[in-house]
Design brief:
Helices cover about 15% and strands about 35% of the residues. It is mainly beta and about 950 residues long. It is elongated and about 115 Å long.
Length: about 950
């Protein structure tokens, strides 16, 4: 396992700002949390690509161990001292139904002092190390003319033996043999080696037969998985493993998908299959259990993908034939988490793992957006969804493309780009994501700039990915996790250009992207805290997190070519321990790591002097994680006088939202397609606490002036100040927010057995709620019909040459100008709880945002147009009038800026996001229509 390089720990160093003073202000209120960091925030995708499993994670150094890869490829005859013999493929006397091929050694001459045997060249060699024990197993039989045993050894390709063992006798029936052998202290570290089984007996004209041959060094926690690769995974502290990957799951045809039932049980009973997604044979000796073990042995969760009836050659299983595949998925889940009294739970126990695995997420298929038939939405996802939810209601299901036929818990997004600036620019992709829609999994992403000689990327690509990661962590309430892809590649044979970790038969190294994953995995707290950058270039991205105990991590990706001097202010704490540490990854942006130079790009850790306010210079092309200890208290950040919804986190009821029905607190299933009344009932306006403004009261949107209250343990609507006041604390289950009663502090708003009540926290998930955007999206109601809209400058919103502008309008303005500044306010095209602006002089054309500029376009009836042309009404940010929130970008609002109109974020990276004047510029006053 590679470790961070520890540099000198002087308190002043590279992190100190220059004398010219900091140009960037990074401010964080470390006492105010915005969301919890997910346990699954940083993950791995492992599929058998680039020999990442067969010849990689599988510790078996023998290639083609079952003689099915092009016959007896990678096996050859070994003779010496005048011995003679040949090797061939034999199928006449199979080991069993699963493995019918064997390697036949025909012995012509084998007298004393002679040698006749078979050699395997491994996966581009066999890595050996000194003083290491290797265990070999194989099935063998001899014909009647052979008498004696065999020798097993590991030797150089020129015949120098480093480890040896003997089997005294091989009989006429198939028998499994096992030997151990240990290399000497002087064994060179090398891959120029081979595995040999030689006849140690007599019988010229006789034959030996071999099948299912393995040889492996000590493995990671005795799992059969290669130690150095697993240690690298463990060192970066992954939260999940997406297994068994992507295309490998599907296969090119129905005969080559990952048929998990053929990958469990004794390895001699596994037939293996052609990995035609990536072009080589897979013995399936790692199998489903090995994939689950990868996660468990590194402290992560498995995110299990199940085959969903679609293959890479675009074969789609008809609905009438899909039931067996659905049952296979149910059986697979049973293997992972079923009790030992179930069929497949018992098989798991027989395979050596009686306890269930820690499975919470199941993905239905892989990249089903390539299926042009629509079958995923119409019947494939629904059939899997309904069956799995019925059997395992607490599991979260991941869809691989958009689905409207069933509720979706999580949707899987994939991003790849060869442009090293792509992910820097994508750092804010999830800022505007709906908090009421499905969660997101970034199941695959990477900067693809590897070379034909090196399957890993550059520092520049890694820094860009780090910028994207800051955005995913900032949006941890909607992004459950992300897995860099692919995880592994053999430097001698890879099918994907850029990978996280590369290896050969003897050693491995982490890419710059690996070290970015390592930094985030080891330097991220349990909660995201409120933070902001001011004066920063577009290439600078940050996220600040903390632990409950007060350890704060400030993580910054600087994708620019210049150092950035900054002033960092940690507000909300009385004490900051002066001894901070900085983990820094920087260097030549074009640099890569190699087997020969594995630490060309690697992080260093140094000490720096921290305080509530300190200067730090972030090096050019760098990822930096600053760690400081504080005494900060911790409370959730909640924006008062804004709408919200509260979502249940009780397992099996996560599709429910807190609502009121006939004045009584309830929990209802609400979706975007629910009736208006249901949306109103499940929407609340968050007000300062009626009894204590440091706490909160939840005003019913459907019943103005009425607040969520308790009467004893019963939840109702009311106006009593004390019973209608709740104090927000971090979720009792570690997720979301818990609402503690103001006048009964030991009790919380809770959901249990279909009802809302005031209860203790005996069941933490019942009293934890996630906060979403309001189901009824507009916080205030605005009269429909014709109106004009005045900016704080006195100018009016208008369209000019089909572009939204602001300009002075008076009664004396030209008739065309009066019309251009008049709109018909209609129920929103995408959601009638919001609004759309139709032009009065161009009926059918609406204001919509396009690349963040606002234009006037003809309604094309598409869903995208409807969302872009829909705006939700909130109280004006400057306390007056209305602010218009973009429907699909909840942090962006209609803004006038220098005479142009954008949808802008407060202090975001784009034109029109300038923080100065944002509150006024996003506040609009309704006025009488200029055109009657």
């Amino acid at each position: 396992m590679l470790a961070l390089t520890l540099a000198a720990t002087g308190l002043a160093g590279a992190g100190t700002a220059t004398a010219a003073g900091p140009g960037v202000a990074l401010t964080a209120d470390v006492s105010r949390t915005t969301s919890s960091v997910n346990k699954t925030q940083f993950g791995e995708i492992v599929e058998d690509i680039n020999h990442s499993v067969e010849g990689g994670l599988s510790a078996n150094v023998v290639r083609n161990s079952t003689m099915k890869e092009n016959g007896i490829a990678h096996w050859s005859a070994v003779t010496a001292g005048g011995g003679a013999g040949t090797v061939s493929l034999d199928t006449t006397q199979p080991l069993n139904a699963a493995n019918g091929n064997s390697l036949k050694l025909s012995i012509a001459d084998n007298a004393r002092g002679q040698r006749v045997g078979v050699a395997n060249d491994g996966f581009y060699g066999i890595g050996l190390a000194p003083s290491t024990k290797y265990t070999a197993t194989f099935f063998a039989r001899a014909d009647g003319a052979f008498h004696g045993g065999v020798t097993v050894d590991l030797e150089s390709t020129t015949g120098t033996v480093y480890a040896k063992a003997t089997v005294r006798s091989v009989g006429a029936k198939w028998t499994k043999y096992s030997v151990t052998m240990t290399t000497g202290r002087d064994t060179p570290v090398s891959t120029a080696n081979r595995f040999v089984i030689a006849a140690d007996g007599v019988g010229a004209g006789s034959s030996l037969y071999f099948d299912v041959v393995t040889c492996q060094p000590p493995t990671y926690h005795d799992t059969g998985l290669r130690k150095d690769l697993m240690a690298k995974f463990a060192a970066r502290k992954p939260g999940f493993f997406r297994v068994p990957g992507g295309n490998y799951l599907e296969g090119n045809t129905l005969s080559t998908y990952f048929d998990w039932k053929k990958t469990v049980g004794p390895i001699e009973n596994r037939p293996g299959h052609q990995d035609d997604a990536w072009g080589y044979w897979s013995t399936d000796q790692v199998g489903l259990k090995g994939y689950l073990d990868m996660a468990e042995q590194t402290g992560a969760q498995p995110l299990l993908a199940v085959f969903a009836g679609y293959t890479l050659d675009h074969t789609v299983v008809p609905q009438s034939q899909l039931a067996p595949y659905v049952q296979d998925a149910l059986d697979e889940i049973q293997y992972a988490i079923g009790g030992t009294n179930t069929k497949w739970g018992a098989q798991r126990a027989a395979d050596g793992h009686p306890a269930p695995y820690d499975l919470h997420y199941v993905e239905i298929g892989n990249e089903d957006f390539f299926d042009g038939t629509g079958s995923y939405n119409t019947y494939r996802f629904p059939l899997f969804h309904d069956a799995i939810k019925a059997a395992y209601p607490t599991l979260q299901l991941v869809a691989t493309t958009s689905v409207s036929s069933r509720p979706v818990d999580v949707i899987d997004d994939h991003y790849y780009s060869g442009d090293t600036s792509f992910f820097t620019d994508a750092a804010h992709n999830y800022d505007g994501t709906s908090r009421n829609g499905p969660k997101h999994l970034v199941g695959e992403y990477a900067t693809t700039n590897g070379t034909k000689d090196n399957p890993t990327g550059t520092l520049a690509g890694a820094v860009s990915e780090a910028g994207f990661m800051t955005g995913m962590v900032r949006n941890a309430d909607v992004v459950i996790g992300a897995s860099y892809a692919p995880a592994l590649a053999d430097v001698n044979d890879f099918q994907w250009p850029t990978n996280e970790i590369a290896f050969d038969a003897g050693s491995s190294f982490g890419s710059p992207s690996y070290w970015v994953q390592h930094i985030f995995g080891n330097n991220t707290g349990d909660y995201v805290v409120s933070s902001a950058l001011a004066g920063a270039a577009a290439g600078l991205n940050e996220v600040v997190t903390r632990t409950a105990a007060g350890t704060v991590y400030v993580t910054v990706a600087n994708a620019t070519n210049s150092p950035v001097a900054s002033r960092i202010a940690l507000n909300g704490t009385r004490f900051v321990r002066p001894n901070g540490t900085a983990t820094v990854l920087t260097g030549d942006p074009n640099a890569r790591n190699t087997l020969a130079a594995p630490n060309t790009v690697a992080p260093t850790t140094t000490a720096f002097r921290a305080s509530n306010s300190f200067d730090y210079t972030f090096p050019a092309n760098s990822v930096v994680a600053l760690k400081v200890d504080t005494s900060a208290p911790m409370t959730p950040v909640l924006n008062v006088n804004r709408g919200l919804s509260l979502h249940v986190t009780t397992p099996g009821a996560t599709d429910r939202s807190v609502a009121v029905t006939d004045g009584v607190g309830a929990a209802s299933v609400v979706t975007a397609s629910s009736p208006d009344a249901a949306k109103l009932d499940a929407t609340f306006l968050l007000r300062p606490g009626l009894a204590d403004p440091s706490c909160y009261s939840l005003e019913s949107r459907a019943n103005p002036g009425q607040y969520l209250s308790h009467r004893g343990d019963r939840i109702t609507l009311g106006t009593d100040k004390r019973s209608a006041t709740f104090c927000a604390v971090e979720g009792n289950s570690g997720i979301g927010v818990s609402w503690r009663s103001y006048d009964d502090p030991g009790r919380f708003l809770s959901y249990r057995n279909g009802k809302l009540s005031l209860a203790g926290c005996e069941h933490p998930a019942d009293s934890s709620f996630t906060v979403g955007e309001p189901w009824w999206r507009s916080d205030v109601s605005v009269p429909l019909g014709r109106s004009s809209w005045q900016a704080n400058t006195g100018d009016y919103l208008r369209h000019q040459n089909f572009v939204a502008k602001t300009s002075a309008i008076t009664a004396g303005s030209a008739a065309t100008d009066l019309q251009d500044a008049t709109f018909t306010l209609e129920p929103g095209l995408a959601d009638d709880s919001c609004y759309s602006f139709e032009s009065v002089n161009f009926p059918g054309q609406y204001l919509r945002h396009y690349n963040f500029q606002v234009v006037l376009n003809q309604n094309d009836k598409s869903g995208l147009f409807a969302e872009d042309a829909t705006f939700c009404a909130t109280t004006g940010h400057n306390g007056q009038g209305i602010s218009w929130q973009a429907y699909a970008y909840e942090d962006h609002y209609l803004r006038q800026y220098a005479g142009n109109v954008y949808i802008g974020a407060d202090g975001g990276p784009r034109v029109g996001d300038a923080a100065s004047g944002w509150a006024d510029d996003t506040s609009w006053q309704r006025a009488a229509p200029w055109a009657g």
